[in-house]
Design a protein that fits this description.
single chain, about 450 residues, Alpha-Beta Plaits, Maf protein, six-stranded mixed β-sheet, five-stranded mixed β-sheet, 17 helices, about 40% helix, about 25% strand
Length: about 450
């Protein structure tokens, strides 16, 4: 098999063209992650989620994901089972330069090949280290020892190369576990090869990001609409703290027809859920809020207590947020609520730090202290201690002051301390998003 070192996909010759296969229904892929660090929870497997998303968008169906130790018998058992069910098996991990990384030799033996030094890869590794004034050492040089019966997927971002074997009409791909290296090899090496070798059914996705409404309420609200979906449309609910993604998937028709159908169905979804839809695809609520503030030519400031800066972290995760984010004050202690935000001491003594009156005063103080158009304040009991019969753990009050409206909202949230803090922050952002939408409508009338 020819070695593939380019980044544009291997050229197809006549023999390869004859091997191009069209699969109906959608071809199945299985993912195997390798490493003890995943099994013991030291590293969270984010690779599988990302691979599943990318392969799904390319027309493949992820049938199973499993994690195994970097032991030959474990790897081969998982691979053999996967090959009995799938047309494509992707393995990540176990390709490092240390002695405990045994995936490469294990797979080479499985496919009946031998490890041989690849001169082009060795030269590339040595040049990379030389440019940094270092010697690669024997361990990194061994990364150039590659199977003689695999298609090599050149890694521009690291020393571990990707490898692809074919057995009948099945393909097995081994990739490094480092996320940015794996993503590079999927995007720039594997997907071009798959597009040449396999013709997959057309599959399109539209994802709507919803906030301020839990999954069960969404399901009740759109029940009739969901029952009316055509047979070739599937709806998936993808909940996470503070938001629910609704993914519409369409197949079975030419792409232009599917796109038109998804847009029409999406309009119906928007009519039902209104401002609870705050974005599409990978857009996040902080992105949508930033875009709305820019349209309003407005700024926002924060006063946080129980969230400890989580709202500020979310808002400042957006590039260019300096255009609208003025800053935040973390006034955790009551003294600072009075000194920095001008919350009257009698309000704190009469109503407590976690109250409508206190967050209203915090928001008002934020407007004056930070000179912003919109102010968000939050105070609550994140736990696990500090609750009472009147104000149990998870009690949160959120205040907003805008040019046209003043709002205070009470929430009773559940979960661990971290989860309560994140849910509280997302609830505050949703209230801000809702206020911004109402002000945009008023402005555009």
């Amino acid at each position: 098999m020819n070695t593939y070192m380019s980044g544009q996909g291997a050229p197809m010759n006549a023999e390869q063209a004859e091997k191009t296969v069209e699969y109906t229904p959608t071809p199945r892929v299985e993912i195997i992650t390798i490493g003890d660090e995943i099994l013991i929870g030291q590293v969270v497997d984010t690779n599988s989620a990302w691979i599943g998303q990318e392969l799904s968008m390319a027309g493949w169906q992820v049938g199973r994901i499993q994690s195994v130790a970097d032991e030959p018998e474990e790897i081969l058992e998982a691979l053999s089972l996967a090959l009995s069910r799938a047309k494509l098996v992707i393995l990540t991990g176990g390709l490092g330069p240390t002695r405990d990384d045994r995936t490469k030799s294990c797979l080479t033996d499985f496919f009946g090949g031998q490890l041989q030094t690849n001169p082009a890869v060795l030269s590339k590794i040595e040049n990379w280290f030389a440019q940094r004034g270092k010697d690669p050492g024997d361990a990194n040089r061994r990364q150039a020892e590659l199977p003689d019966n695999a298609q090599i997927l050149s890694n521009d971002l690291g020393t571990a190369q990707g490898m692809l074997w074919e057995r009948g009409d099945c393909m097995v791909v081994s990739l490094p576990g480092v996320p940015y290296e794996m993503k590079h090899l999927i995007h720039d090496r594997l997907l071009p090869i798959l597009s040449q070798k396999v013709k997959t059914p057309t599959l399109l996705h539209h994802t709507y990001i919803t906030c301020g409404m839990v999954e069960s309420v969404i399901a009740e609200t759109i029940a009739e609409w969901e029952l009316g979906l055509p047979d070739n449309i599937r709806l998936a609910y993808l909940p996470s703290p503070g938001m629910v993604r609704l993914r519409l998937s369409a197949s079975g028709r030419p792409a232009p027809e599917l796109e038109k159908l998804l847009l029409s169905l999406g309009n119906g979804l928007r009519n039902l859920l209104g401002h609870h839809i705050c974005g599409m695809e990978n857009e996040r609520l902080p992105d949508a809020i930033g875009a709305a503030l820019i349209r309003l030519n407005a700024t926002v400031g924060l006063a946080e207590s129980c969230t400890g800066g989580e709202i500020a972290r979310l808002l400042t995760s957006v590039a260019g947020c300096s255009r609208y984010f003025r800053g935040g004050i973390i006034a955790y202690h009551n003294d600072l609520k009075s000194e920095l935000l001008n919350v009257p001491t009698d309000v704190l003594s009469s109503h407590g730090a976690v109250s409508a009156e206190t967050v209203a005063a915090m928001a008002s103080g934020t407007l004056s202290q930070l000179n912003c158009d919109y102010a968000v304040s939050i105070s609550g009991i994140a736990g696990p201690d500090g609750g009472s019969a009147d104000k149990p753990v998870g009690t949160v009050w959120i205040g907003l002051h805008g040019p046209n409206t003043t709002v205070q909202r009470h929430y009773q949230l559940g979960g661990t301390r971290d989860l309560i803090q994140h849910r509280a922050a997302m609830s505050a952002l949703y209230l801000l998003w809702k206020m911004l939408q109402e002000d945009l409508i008023s402005k555009e009338k």
